[in-house]
Amino acid sequence: MVSGAEHSSKSKLRHVVAFKFKEGATGKQIKQVEDGFRDLKKKITEIQDYEWGTNVSKESRNKGCTHGFILTFKSEKDRDTYIDHPAHKEFGKLVGPVLDDVFVIDFWAQE
User: The domain that contains 40 carries what CATH number?
Assistant: First the structure.
């Protein structure tokens, strides 16, 4: 495993998630996922920032993922609280049936 660089108190922990929806996922189901992910910021105070969008890359390397989400945390402890939070687990029940695949990576943002 490759380890990251040392991080300072100014560093931010980024949690990046990409979703590939099942072929049969409806627009309504996808909207529920978008809204549900956004609502996690209201329910989990450890989330410092939340951004999301849909793929617009011309490189054709998204491996079928159409939606990207970035959460920012102050610490790994805060990220771990998010992962174990009941609201996150409930969100997992919402997305599970409509996802074909998911990609997650966490890193300390460097300037």
Answer: 3.30.70.100
Report pTM: 0.90
Residue 7 lies in a domain: no
pLDDT in tens, 49-99: 999 999 999 999 999 999 999 999 999 999 999 999 999 999 999 999 999
Instruction: Tell me which residue of 88, 14, 13 sits closest to 44, measured CA to CA.
Output: 88
Domain that holds residue 87: 18-108
- Residue 97 CA: distances (Å) to CA of 14, 23, 47, 93: 26, 12, 25, 7
Is residue 95 within 8 Å of 36, Cβ to Cβ?
A: yes
37 has pLDDT over 60? yes
Q: Amino acid identity, residue 3?
A: S
Structure token pair of residue 16: 């990046």
Place of tokens 């989330």: 47
